[in-house]
Specification:
646 residues, mainly alpha, two-stranded antiparallel ribbon, 49% helix, 4% strand
């Protein structure tokens, strides 16, 4: 008898659904899935981080590097904590202050600064793929998305406990349905790209894509697991079953998209009146087009195009979510991830490998389902959440995480270089009430962090990638840090905070590639163009060339770790790009107001955070004898001493 292959595959899949609920000892033994250990701190140093690092260095036959210079240290910690360079006055004061508490007090000032919150928010926005447009063909703007960005900044500024931060984003609307701040937090669930198809739409397919976006980011952002690999079949490497994926997806089964108008009644009425008038004229033109002679059609079509551009933009709406149990649709395991091939129905349940064998489902009609999911994620006993977060913080200070793959703690991810230290930090984080600032403080106060950036023959031979931290690994500034530092050194950085994203001028050739070029409406106030980069409008189909060439993420997917590539277009952008040119001209104008003898000193202090050495001063004097100040400023911005933190 002939076998119907699709039906046979469906039968096998259903069998696996029924039988694939237990986990082997080996699967449960993977390091990231085991409960956190409580390691004893080695008795090798007063600071616990140094003690763990020294223990590993001792095993490798390596030693730490000497302390960094005070100029290098203040520049390093200021960039790491705030994303901005220290001012020349701050550098001079720190170098002159020889009290034992000087560095600790500096760290506390930086952690209390508003710039700290902006820097940490930028890193979080990478992880959650924040953007202010939909992506895909139309790339429609999300007028109120900036509110989520500002919510994240506020959360870091007040050192909101991470368990609360996660819970608000997953389920703020369930916590406090009438609270606008919680609705903004819950817009996290709408951050992913969204395809707006015209005409007939496959509702099951669209719903599945929305649920997929919501589910995948839970794994990548919070749990450090590649959940998406189980969308079509059992995970090939990690103990995540096909059923696990859809059981997690079930927590979003009663979630619906919810758009909250942000306009007054008067604004709504005026918009309706303008829209009705334009649509009436369009209807008349289209009627004329049908009846027109061939010779007249081109002119009418041109008028229609002009009139279509006059249709008012949609009124601002906050795109968030809410629960509606009445709209509940059962979640089925989808064969090959296709909405056309539903198999067994499943209910809500977290990852089975973190539960006892044959653990039952939690149900399929729970009240406040996302809140229950969030509480499981932030439960202190969850072995993944705290490890993932402290590893991200470590990566921000040391260039690489203790786990080098910060969003993949699975078998195909990297193993931790210092597993005891990772667990110790995670335990400290949980015991400290999930507060993030104390963990930053702990890391940057260590001697491991304060080492000089220098190499030794032994280090290069035994640990060329510096996995065991025998020196400080210098890092190149990220795109936003680079731009913001240029504006700061030039004295033109606009300190205003918050509010709608700023659209800056960009090459017309790029704007004309957009589906609707008129979407890129440049912010009229030119002073706004010099805001910090976190406040620039984040459009998925239009990244600033400066940001793109220096490895800013594309926001379509969660960015776990920014790469640091080196290629020729970067040099061309630094020499010829509008960002560098504008900053160079502005810095030159500042220098021209100074006495000639002071120009070189103040330029070096503004751009490099230190005075020039004798050889540099002589080279600068020779250069300025035949070149204008703006070219001198440009040369400084293109130098490694500006582009790298060491």
């Amino acid at each position: 008898m002939a076998v119907n292959i699709p039906q046979f595959a469906w039968f096998l899949a259903c069998c696996s659904l029924a039988l694939g609920e237990s986990y082997t000892v080996a699967e449960r033994r993977h390091w990231s899935l085991r409960p956190r250990a409580t390691p004893a701190v080695p008795s090798l140093a007063a600071h616990p981080i140094d003690a763990f690092i020294l223990a590993k260095l001792k095993e490798q036959g390596l030693t730490m590097s000497p302390p960094a210079s005070r100029q290098a240290l203040i520049r390093r910690v200021t960039f790491d904590l705030t994303g901005l360079p220290p001012t020349p006055d701050a550098v001079r004061a720190f170098v002159a202050d020889r009290s034992p508490q000087a560095y600790e007090q500096l760290v506390d000032r930086l952690l209390a600064s508003p710039e700290y919150a902006e820097r940490q928010a930028r890193q979080w926005l990478d992880v959650v793929r924040f953007a202010e447009s939909d992506g895909f063909e139309y790339d429609t703007h999300r007028s109120e998305a900036w509110r989520y960005r500002d919510y994240v900044i506020r959360s870091f500024a007040e050192d909101k406990p991470y368990d609360r931060f996660v819970t608000e984003q997953l389920a703020g609307d369930e916590l406090a349905p009438g609270d606008l701040e919680m609705q903004v937090a819950a817009s996290f669930n709408r951050l992913g790209p969204y395809r707006r198809n015209a005409g007939n739409q496959d509702k099951a397919y669209i719903r599945n894509e929305i649920l997929t976006e919501m589910t995948n980011v839970v794994g990548s952002a919070f749990l450090g697991v590649t959940l998406g690999c189980a969308r079509c079949h059992d995970h090939k490497f990690d103990p995540i079953r096909h059923t696990d994926y859809y059981r997690l997806q079930s927590f979003f089964a009663t979630t619906e998209q919810h758009d909250i108008p942000m306009s007054t009644e008067a604004e709504k009425a005026a918009w309706k009146e303008r829209t009705a008038a334009v649509n009436q004229e369009l209807a008349a033109l289209k009627k004329r087009l049908k009846e027109a002679a061939p010779a007249d059609k081109a002119a009418i079509e041109q008028r229609i195009g002009v009139k279509e551009k006059q249709v008012p933009e949609p009124l601002p709406e906050l795109k968030t979510v809410r629960d509606d149990p009445a709209l509940y649709q059962p979640v089925h395991v989808l064969l090959r991830g296709s909405s056309d091939a539903p198999a067994a129905k499943v209910g809500m349940r977290p990852l089975g490998v973190l539960l006892p064998d044959e653990a039952p489902e939690w149900g399929d009609a729970l009240a406040q389902p996302r809140l229950k999911l969030a509480r499981w994620i932030v439960d202190p006993a969850n072995p993944l959440t705290a490890r993932v977060l402290v590893n991200r913080l470590w990566m921000g200070h040391f260039g690489a995480g203790i786990v080098a793959t910060p969003s993949d703690f699975g078998r195909m991810g990297a193993r931790p270089t210092h597993p005891e230290l990772l667990d110790w930090l995670a335990n400290e984080f949980v015991a400290g009430g999930f507060r993030i600032k104390p963990i930053h403080r702990l890391m940057v106060l260590s001697q491991t962090y304060q080492q000089a950036s220098r190499t030794t023959p032994a280090g290069r031979d035994k640990d060329p990638r510096n996995r065991f931290l025998w020196t400080y690994s210098r890092r190149r500034l990220q795109a936003e840090e680079m731009r913001d530092a240029m504006l700061s050194a030039a004295g033109i950085l606009n300190p205003r905070r918050g509010g709608p994203g700023v659209i800056t001028p960009i090459e017309p050739e790029l704007v004309n590639l957009l589906y609707k070029p008129d979407q890129w409406a440049v912010t009229p106030d030119a002073a706004e163009h010099n805001r910090r980069s976190i406040y620039l409008f984040q459009k998925r189909n239009m990244r600033m060339p400066f940001m793109e060439v220096f490895d800013a993420p594309d926001t379509l997917l969660s960015c776990a770790r920014r790469e640091s590539s080196t290629h020729a277009p970067q040099a061309l952008e630094l020499l010829n790009g509008p960002v560098t040119r504008q900053a160079s001209v502005a810095l030159a104008e500042r220098l021209e107001k100074l006495a000639p003898a002071q120009r070189i000193l103040q330029a070096f202090e503004a751009v490099f955070g230190r005075p020039p050495v004798a050889k540099e001063r002589a080279a600068a004097e020779k250069f300025l004898a035949s070149s204008p100040l703006r070219e001198f400023a440009l040369a400084l911005f293109a130098a490694n001493d500006f582009l790298y933190v060491q």
